[in-house]
Design a protein that fits this description.
Radius of gyration: 22 Å
Largest sheet: 15 strands, mixed
Strand content: 25-35%
Helix content: 25-40%
Strand order of the largest sheet: 1-2-3-19-18-17-16-4-5-6-7-9-11-13-12
Distance between the termini: 40 Å
């Protein structure tokens, strides 16, 4: 059968349909508690997320704070597209995901998959970025990486006007003279370094990270992004030294995520995580960095500063990105694609992916789409509200009507009324994930009715 969805036409074979998210039941006693703030306070300490699709996290990544808004469908994507390619004017971004598990001839499978997606994008769309994510240096040989850069470079040519990003994910140990020479020759202009600081004492050495950064400094054209994993076993002194080192190495953006990804279970853990986030937020605020969510930081001069001023930022599965990127193509095992707010994830089973692509069979995917079918179950208003808080730390549209629903948050001192808008305070930013989940716990009709009447 054929399904037409938001300017992308696919042929699908349905398999099963996942159960849509159900919100927690709200009774009269709960409403009374909400009025005096008791619900919100107990929510922070003893929240039950069993009815929410994704477990809570103290950091504000897409999966934790926005994915509960999406209904899911399990589908098969047919190997043959249709000829009804639609002209698109937005930018296109390509993400190649490389799992650590070795898959035979993975580079050839990726080339076959991009051919299958030839109707998902317009060859005239300007190319914003080409990223190799996951663990590309474990999955791909230098020869395979070279072949893919050549092939994808023809499909997705560099745009001088957009200064197209060609990036690759690495660990500190992978960033050496040989890999940097390879990256430079293949015209990569950004590396994203994964740093595991989840177990770090105060005196843990930074020598390996320093050595990698010193080698990177010899390649001035290649910019540095970082993703840092931290936990309640990450010493504050070590984290401060690490952030200072990355700043001095001209790092352009830093994303921090707590480990484990799920919500800490004890009050002491929660306090430690919040203190670490508070320290990091203050560190970067004092240095003029932009903060989005409560865990993504952008150096002065990063393009997200301008996008923030122009109100053109959106939180996506790939982080805070320009709203001008309208087509996201994901290739590989577990890769995510998206267009017009509809996302698809390839099967995460490497053997299934390999068989489907190699044998020209339908590929198992999971499709995510916002619930906008009717007013009673319309998450559009809530989505816009959450995006405003995550990207700009304020609620501009509907601030008056939402103020009543957010009275417990205002009473907690996490939001303030300012010039007709609701502005997050410094401590509100740290607790932004809890605020998002508080809004997610409310019935859709409460939010919709208050903002549309």
């Amino acid at each position: 059968m054929q399904v037409i969805c938001d300017s992308i036409t696919y042929r699908y074979c349905y398999r099963t349909t996942a159960r849509p998210r159900k919100r927690p039941q709200i009774n009269d006693e709960t409403v009374d508690n909400r009025r005096n703030g008791a619900l919100f306070h107990s929510y922070l300490i003893m929240a039950d997320f069993s009815n929410i699709q994704t477990p809570s996290s103290l950091t504000t990544h897409f999966t934790a704070v926005l994915s509960p808004l999406f209904r899911t469908e399990a589908l098969y994507r047919h190997p043959n597209g249709t000829s009804s390619s639609i002209r698109r004017i937005g930018q296109v971004a390509l993400n190649v995901y490389c799992p650590a598990e070795q898959t035979a001839e993975y580079e050839h499978l990726l080339c076959q998959e991009v051919a299958r997606k030839r109707y998902d994008y317009d060859t005239r769309q300007p190319v914003k970025s080409l990223w190799f994510l996951g663990q590309p240096l474990q999955q791909l040989s230098p020869a395979a990486l070279t072949e893919l850069c050549f092939r994808f470079g023809n499909h997705f040519p560099h745009s001088d006007e957009l200064n197209t990003v060609r990036g690759i994910a690495v660990t500190p140990s992978e960033l050496n003279r040989d890999s940097l020479a390879l990256f430079s020759g293949l015209k990569f202009n950004c590396v994203e370094m994964y740093i595991d600081a989840s177990v770090a004492s105060s005196n843990r050495s930074l020598d390996k990270v320093k050595a990698s950064l010193l080698m990177l400094a010899d390649y001035g054209r290649i910019k540095l992004n970082c993703k840092i994993r931290f936990s309640d076993h990450s010493a504050a002194d070590y984290m401060t030294r690490l952030l200072s080192l990355l700043e001095s190495a001209q790092c352009q953006q830093i994303e921090m995520s707590c480990t484990p990804a799920n919500r800490p279970v004890s009050l002491s853990e929660i306090q430690l995580y919040r203190q670490q986030l508070l320290t990091a937020n203050k560190y970067f605020a004092d240095r003029g960095w932009l903060t989005c969510g409560n865990n993504c930081f952008y150096a002065p001069g990063h393009e997200n500063h301008a996008l923030h001023q122009q109100r053109k930022l959106r939180l996506t599965p790939w982080g805070f990105q320009s709203s001008q990127v309208q087509t996201w193509l994901g290739l590989g095992v577990g890769a995510m694609s998206g267009s017009s707010g509809v996302y698809e994830r390839n099967t995460t089973v490497a053997l299934d992916y390999q068989q489907a692509i190699a044998e020209e069979m339908p590929l198992a995917i999971t499709r995510y789409q916002l619930k906008t079918a009717d007013a009673a179950d319309d998450d559009t208003v809530l989505t816009d509200t959450l995006q405003d808080m995550l990207c700009y730390h304020r609620i501009s549209e509907g601030a008056g009507p939402l103020g009543a629903l957010l009275a417990p948050v205002l009473a907690q001192g996490w939001l303030t009324a300012e010039d007709g808008a609701l502005q997050l305070t410094d401590i509100g930013v740290i607790n932004l994930s809890a605020i998002c989940h508080f809004l997610l716990s409310l019935p859709n009709t409460d939010i919709y009715n208050r903002c549309n009447h």
